[in-house]
Write the structure tokens for this entry.
Amino acid sequence: MAIRPILIAGDPRLATVAAPVAEFDAELAKFVEDLFETNTAAHGAGLAANQVGDPRAVFVYDLRDRGVRHRGHVVNPALETSEIPETMPDPEDSEGCLSVPGERYPTGRADWARVTGVDVEGNPVSVEGTGYLARCLQHECDHLAGHLYLDRLIGRNQRAAKKMIKARGWTGPGNSWLPGSDSNPFGW
């Protein structure tokens, strides 16, 4: 297993739609293990393949929601949600991202989400949840659709994020951080 560098906002690979996985082999299984190891080292709730520069449609998640641990992976995910709010989100509904290190912004998300797909062996999987798990599932599927959570921001939050991106120089490729080696940008 290996911890991989995580790409930072501005890298075009984060804005590219993931390619469906066609090969279910030992290499895919090892890659998913690397995603888990990287996510753990980064203290993340989830990690999509394109965040480490891989174009395949796969993500992992490992989080606690209301005292229950949810851990797994989904290959070739399809997302269903309840209605997504279009109004300014509550400031308490903030979201962060390993590809936007150290930042959090209020982000509107559906209260319920279900992701269906397959595992590394091609067996069907379905993950459904509310709360933090639903937020994570939507967030990771957004990554694989070529979107950062910053793309969902509205109003003053959107303006603040655009200023932050420019101030940090995250306007092009080449920025990344390595969990476990670089200082943790979230302060954990």
Observations:
- The longest helix spans residues 26-41.
- The radius of gyration is 16 Å.
- The chain has a mean pLDDT of 94.
- The chain has three helices and nine strands.
